[in-house]
Each structure stands twice: as structure tokens, then as C-alpha cells.
Amino acid sequence: MCLSLTAQTDTAVRLIPIQKSDHIKRNFNTDEILNAKPYRIIHFGDSHIQGDRITNEIRSHLQQLYGNAGSGVIFPYSLTGSFGPLGTKSSIKGGYSYSSQLKNASNRPIGIMGYELSLTKGAEFTVSFSDKFKGKITNEMVVWINSNSDTLNLTFNHGKYSVDCLRLQRGIRKYHITSDEQIDTLIFQTNDECALWGFEFVSKEGLIYQQNGVVGAQFTHLIKHEEDVLLQLKELKPNLLLFSYGTNESYSNLDTVKYENTVENFLRRLMTELPDASILITNAPDTRSAGRIPSNELAINRILKRISEELGLSFYDANEAMGGWGSLYIWNKRGYFNKDLLHFSFSGASLFGKLISYALLNVLQDSTAYVQQLEIDIKENLPAKETEVVVSTESSTNQEIITPKKKQKFYIVKSGDSLSKIAQKTGSSVNVLVRKNNLKSADKIKPGQKLFY
Fold first, then answer.
1. How many CA atoms lie within 13 A of 44 on its CB side?
2. Range of the domain at 159
3. For the segment 33-78, what is each residue's pLDDT rounded down to a tens digit?
4. Do 185 and 289 share a domain, yes or no?
5. Dist. CA 406–CA 332, nearest whole Å
6. Does residue 214 lie in a domain region?
7. Mean pLDDT in residue range 105-128
8. For the whole model, what pTM was predicted?
9. Which band of pLDDT confidence, cut at 50, 70 and 90, is reported for residue 401?
10. CATH number at residue 419
11. For residues 397 and 403, what is the distance between their CA atoms, to the nearest angstrom?
């Protein structure tokens, strides 16, 4: 009897919820957002975030419902060999150099934006804003500077203004500018060497959605600068922190045990020093950079989920929302990825941002009509996926639809292996290995043994 196989189609996208913690429910709710002056969300991540396509999608949905307080602190990436932000034009007369979390040969202090722009004495920096700027232009601005002296001569193209300087620890200075007109151009000259960390328009009502992405970044690149990052975060007082890392880790050869400990310790410190900020972790989307398979993707994503569960933080499985392992190929067929198979296209980033927006708005549990319309919009843009197999016989017209069961993953013990080494290789943990395999001690494993993880 012959069997023939035909494919059924379904969706690659899953409208999955955020795994909520009591902390996010307490701090991320409608009353808190409406009563904050303003409510600030800061989203850390890699190039997916720095491009502001995904975050701009999320920003637009939340601000339509809760008011536009702008995009928070921004940085002139265009002067560092990178790109953005949209709607700004930046230039420097005089000498300057720059560093990032990834390229910092001089070990310079770096704040939340992940970049710094060092200007020599006498240099002049100019930034102007056009109608394409995604933030909200106001008559107040804050400029973040790292310097050993009060170093700025601030000027504008029009209006009367005043400047106050708040001196923080570690050489960080926060210049607050108030003008009688909207500030569409900022010009400052340096009296001494200084480093620009970013600038933002001040808005007192609504919701700020700020992106802090760095091209090529891993979670640990941010953590290397945690003292300066924490100092700046304490001043900004964010209400919700999002961390979207994992893509670059997925392609690197890293020590997963050390990575897990480093990330967990950093998040524990954040929870202690910023007790009023909710924290949401998302994992890496499915990618195939330049055709390469991200060998650590599954391990890293399991680690991020496990840390969230251990610390009681909220977690959003962005990879699963895409459709899980291999969903990249389905998304790519619909034109949702660029040719590098690493970065989303405009339409792909929009869909990915809608998925996160939908999950966030479901935490708030209001604006039902808006959420329902967003769900319709998402479903209208879904890529197709081959998910089921129809098995038929030549002698019968009856068909049976078979959905494959999820296979339990296992590892074959090799000579010299220990539970800690196996945990690192599989992205699991010693406790999980002991529990799933009913082990009483680490001494009982032996070569050839099958261990589930």
C-alpha cells in the first residue's frame, strides 16, 4: 500500500501572551501610565532595536492610547558610522572621535545609549530636527555630557533660554535647557574635552518609548558599563525596562554558564536599585545571518526564559511568536526579512512590532476595540507555514491528519563530561538535568548514557 504526502497550511505566527509577573502587573497598568508625568519605557537591545523599526511600531500603538511624550534620549548615530535617528541632521566642526559598547579601545565611560561622542576642546556640535523626526519637539531639552568640567556654551537659532547644570557622580552632567520657543536646532561649543551621551526633549505628560539599541550588541556588552548605565537610569527613573538580546549571542562561541550568571546578577542588581521599574525580557527572533545557522539560539533563549522565571520577571517568547525554530524561512518567503536573513524588512519589523504591541496591550487589559483591530491587522499579514501532513492511501479516500508530537531532547554522555559541562553544551542547568533524569548524584553519569534536557 502506497502512501502519498500532501501539506496543509497554517500560520507561522502565534499570538502568545507575556508571561506576567506580579511586578509588571503592579507597575505596568493603565492608572500608572495615565498618572505618571510622564511614563517612561526604555527598550535595550541590538541592531533590531537601534534601527527603531520595531520600537517605532510599538511606540506608535502605545502612544495612540496613552499620549505622545516622545522617544526619550536619542543619540547622533550618523556621526559614528552608523545610522539615524530619522529626522535629525548632525554635524561637528573641530575634532572628535567615538566609542561604543563593542568598540572602545580607550575604555571610555559609556551610558545607556551604548555610544559616546568625544569632542576636543573648541569643537562645535549642531543638531537640527525636521518633520520626519519621530520624537516630540518641545521648548525644553536635556543634554547628557560626561566631562571633568562645566564645558558647554549652548546656543539656539532663536528664542530666549536658560540653562541649568546638574552635576552627578562619575563626571556625568545633565544640562537642562528651557526656551520660550520650540527648540528645532541645538548648537553647543566645548570649553574643554567632553563626551556627548545623548539629548532629549522634555515632555511632562504621556508615554515615552525610548530605544537603546546597539548594532552587534550582546547583553554582556551593556553589563560591562553597568555603573554608568545604572547611574543614568536612576536619574531617568524608568517605569518599564525591556531587554531584547540574544541574536548576536546565538552566533557566538560563548560560555553559556558564565553568560547566565552574569545576566542574572545584573538583573538582580537592577531589581534592587530600581525597585519601581518593571522588567520584561524578550528572546532572540529566528534568523540565519548570511546563511549561517545560529548554533546557540535555542540555548540562549532557554537561558533568558529560565532567568526570568528564577527572578520572577516577565518574559515574552518573541521567537515562539514568530513561529519558533525555522520560522525565518517562512517569514522570508513573504518578504519579511532583508537579504542578510538577519534583519527584518520594513514590513517584517512592523509585523514583529505589532506582535509585541499586542502582547503588551493585553497585559493592560483595556482598549479592547483597539486590541481587536490590532489582532485583525496582524492576521491579515501572516506568513503561511506547512504544519501538518496528510497521509492518504491509494485504495481509500479517507484521510488522516497527523500532527507530529514534540520530541524530547536528549544528550549522549561523552568521556570526560560532567553535568556542568553538559548543562553548558545544551543550554540547560544542572538542576534540570538531575530532575529530568532522576539522578541522585553527579557521579552516576557515564559515557553512552542518554540524558534528557
1. 27
2. 73-202
3. 999 889 999 999 999 999 999 999 999 999 999 999 999 999 999 9
4. no
5. 24
6. no
7. 94
8. 0.82
9. very low
10. 3.10.350.10
11. 19
Burial category of 103 from C-beta neighbours within 10 Å (exposed 0-12, middle 13-18, buried 19 and up)? exposed
Q: Would you say residue 376 lies in a domain? A: yes
Query: Which of 81-85, 225-229, 348-352 has the least mean pLDDT?
Result: 81-85
Residue 125 falls inside a structural domain:
yes
Query: Is 31 part of any domain?
Result: yes
Look at the chain and report how many structural domains it folds into.
Answer: 3
Asked if the model's pLDDT at residue 1 lies above 60, the reply is: no
Which CATH number belongs to the domain containing residue 36 in this structure? 3.40.50.1110
Question: With b meaning 16 or more CB within 10 Å and e meaning fewer, what string describes 372-384?
Answer: eebeeebeeebbe
423-436 pLDDT, tens digit each: 777 777 777 788 78
